[in-house]
Amino acid sequence: MSTDTIPQLARLSVSLPSELLSQLDAMVAERALPSRSQMIAELIRHALAEHGESRANSVLAGTLTLIYRADSGRVRQALAQAESRYIEEVISSQHVLLEDDQSLEVLLVQGPSRRLNALCDDLRKVRGVQQIKLVTTTALLPPLHSHGAVESAAPRVSRTSR
Fold this sequence. Notes:
Elements: H1 18-30, H2 36-55, E1 59-69, H3 73-84, E2 90-97, E3 102-112, H4 113-124, E4 129-137
Antiparallel strand pairs: 1-3, 1-4, 2-3
């Protein structure tokens, strides 16, 4: 094997809070990886892929997942106001109450990557939001409806008995 196919390795020293390191070690053990380095490299690759998508001006589809404190209607109202500024990008939302006065909300989104990232940034600014994650794909949703479109000429089949 030639040295051209073997990637050059560089060393990196990282300081982490002990609890975060314990969680990393648990993740490495659960995935049966040979080292922390392999897990950290995978996490960096994911972050770089996300960063690359955010820089492209392509249209993406995906989900935006939020966890926030639901102790007052103020947080929900602020989130709804922010989401309404992105009405063309937010296709639907699902809200679930969690334990300890927390809520989980998942938004189905589609639009230009810069708009989806701006939506994330605006939601992240809402006081009470604890976690937010945008997961995207370049595969898009098919058009749901278009105004003024002619309905299909195919006959409709009735499911009622005659």
